[in-house]
Amino acid sequence: MNKVLIVTYYWPPGSGAGVQRWLKFAKYLRDFGWEPVVYTPANPEPQEIDISLLQDIPDNMEVIKSPIWEPYNIYKRLTGKKKEDRLGVALMSDKKQGFVSRLSLWIRSNLFIPDPRRFWVRPSVRLLSKYLHGRPVDVIVTTGPPHSMHLIGLELKKRLGIKWVADFRDPWTNIDFYRDLALTRWADRCHKKLERKVLHEADRIITVSPGMSREFASMGISRIATITNGFDVVPASLTKHLPEKFTLLHLGSIPKSRNPENLWRVMADLVRQNPGFAGKLQIKLIGKMDRIVLESIGRYELLDFVLSEDFIPHKNTFHELTEAAVLLLFINNTPNAGGILTNKFFEYLSARRPILAMGPADGDASVILGETGAGKIFEYNDPAGLKNHLLDLFGLYSQNKLITDSRDIERFSRKNLAGELGELLTKLIS
Fold it and tell me: Residue 89: pLDDT above 50?
């Protein structure tokens, strides 16, 4: 069996989309002729801990761990956070943000290039060079962000000549918050130089969306493949009953770039105008929210309708999805949002509940929603469309007819996607 070394910062018991993508690939790769070996930090800074994900690690799969030094403990001391505090979603608004926070952001952006995990690159290259001399692999895969993982692959390819695949779960210099990093011209040039080097030196580039692949193609890169995120096998019989409340569920973080101001406004109007809607409405938000989002919800007097939790184990998410009436998807309200396909989008598809999305009408998510019939997407500046669609959904809910029979979603199963990856790796070494 061929062997692939996967270099990833995110791994169980850490949680989040960065963990799931390569955990699930590793789970199924053996079915397609590839034995995965994972290299990951022994002491990373995860956003959350989810012990249940350990159950998905294949039996007897080798996981190599080594210590990582990160400057986050210094940052926590400077900003008054406790050592055990988890770092939030990138660039969430901070009500207490002052000089120290702004200075920390400037240092992080301009001195820790490409990111604060850069200090793990050299020791990892030394350790893996020794490991690979004794136990060779056929391909190395690095996945980012953090994009410093790609620098490990870059150096190992240079030293050992092993085929190398760079997987981009998010863009590098075109990520939505790049312009908010307070970069100097020198730092911006450094980021772009490293990005170009990775894109040109890797034997293959993988992205999670057609839009991101098009972005890299416009930079002159031709060795690109799109392998999206996905979902685990859908149970043969899905629950058909609808919840007692007209529950609108959003799963995942909501930073300020995804704040659906017009959705809150429309729901507030419907609450005032339609007593039946007000009597049944429930808004369930699972994941961290920017304070700006909470302030918006409060301004429209919707807090009494909201149930919120910061985190639930991944094993509970499918139950939550199928217990909702409508699934809310907020795609970043930023210029480059067309290529965003989040991990939760595909898990939404598997639940076969109608998806109400907000984002670019010509983006990748819109295309898949149209192909599968799984829901509708509205621009952030379309309150009239939102209001009419919400009323339609509530009408179907009231008649107990709010079930979406999505079509052709099996292509996004984790096992099928692992098959695509296995085929790509096999072609690479042929």
Answer: no
Are 109 and 182 a contacting pair, CB within 8 Å?
Answer: yes
Distance CA 394, CA 276 (A): 10
Is the separation of the CB atoms in 84 and 49 below 8 Å? no
Kindly report the backbone phi and psi dihedral angles of residue 31, in degrees, each rounded to the nearest multiple of 5, phi listed first.
-65, -15
- How many angstroms separate the CA atoms of 194 and 148, rounded? 9
Grouping H, G, I as helix, E, B as strand and the rest as coil, residue 417 is helix
- Measuring CA to CA, how many Å separate 46 from each of 8, 13, 151, 218? 12, 9, 21, 33
Q: Residue 40 corresponds to which tokens in the numbers above? A: 């990951």
CB 155 within 8 A of CB 125: yes
Contacting residues for 244 by C-beta, under 8 A, at least 6 apart: none
d(C-alpha 281, C-alpha 271), whole Å: 8
Lowest-pLDDT range, 81-90, 217-226, 253-262?
81-90
**pLDDT at residue 97 in the model:** 56
CA 30 to chain centre: 24
Domains along the chain? 2-230+413-429 (3.40.50.2000), 246-409 (3.40.50.2000)
Query: What distance lies between CA 116 and its chain's CA centroid?
Result: 19
